[in-house]
Amino acid sequence: MRLRQMAVAFLLNEEQEVLFLQKRSKDIFLAGHLVPIGGHIDGDEVNDPKKACIREIEEETGIKSDCIEDLSLRYIVLRLKDNQEIRIQYVFLGKISKNSTLNESDEGSLEWLDFMEIPNRNVSATTIEIAKHYMELGTSTEKTYVGSMSSLNGNPQINWALLEDWEPSLFNL
Predict the structure, then answer these.
(1) What is the rounded CA–CA span in Å between residue 94 and residue 74?
(2) pLDDT in tens, 12-69
(3) 139 alpha carbon, distance to own chain's centre
(4) What predicted TM-score, i.e. pTM, was given to this entire model?
(5) How far is Cα 72 from Cα 60, in angstroms, rounded to an integer?
(6) What is the pLDDT of residues 143-173, one digit of tens each?
(7) Residue 92: count of CB within 10 angstroms of its CB
(8) Which residues share a beta bridge with 2?
(9) How far out from the chain centre does Cα 118 lie?
(10) In the chain, helix, strand, coil percent, each to 5?
(11) CB 21 within 8 A of CB 110
């Protein structure tokens, strides 16, 4: 079984809009979709998904790391694809100014979306589930959640759990 790792960012502005990349219709991966800024983790970044995320942000938007505030890991999503590949997506949240100078790449055009608008747009099921969880719980916490993509009555869903360190002393062991 193959492993594919990706790092993406939900970059928010002052109005709680998220910066998305509109993929071209001729792209192989998620053609025509709006996707969070990010992409695949390179070999030298496997142990540092934040490094991959920062690289992808700069490649796709031109935004340098010193223009991003509070970039932190908030979600890790696991998905089995075609029983042949395990996909691991590291999802970071950060803040940038809506007035940031954006440089579009050859990967697509950039667009700001209100969080509430995300489920109504051409985005992946993973993106919808992350946005729903963030609006329900993520806005009130800085914690990291891990989720596994599954199906409930034929509809995609993510089962979330808080990612936390296990301390034997907490359980009197």
Answers:
(1) 10
(2) 999 989 999 998 766 666 667 899 999 999 999 999 999 999 999 999 999 999 999 9
(3) 15
(4) 0.91
(5) 19
(6) 999 999 987 777 889 999 999 887 776 666 5
(7) 25
(8) 85
(9) 13
(10) 25, 40, 35
(11) yes
Q: Which two tokens stand for residue 14?
A: 């002052």
User: Which residues lie below 8 Å from residue 87, measured CB to CB, with a gap of 6+?
Assistant: 4, 5, 6, 77, 78, 79, 80, 81
Place of tokens 């993509």: 149
Q: CA-CA distance, 142 to 126, in Å (whole number)?
A: 20
- Is the separation of the CB atoms in 48 and 41 below 8 Å? no
Which structure tokens are listed for 45? Answer: 């970044």
Query: Residue 86 and residue 79: Cα distance in Å, rounded?
Result: 6
- Give the amino acid at 137: L
Amino acid identity, position 132: K
- Strand stretches in 15-167, DSSP E: 17-23, 34-40, 69-81, 85-95, 108-114, 145-152, 155-162
| Host H or E run for residue 4 | strand 2-12
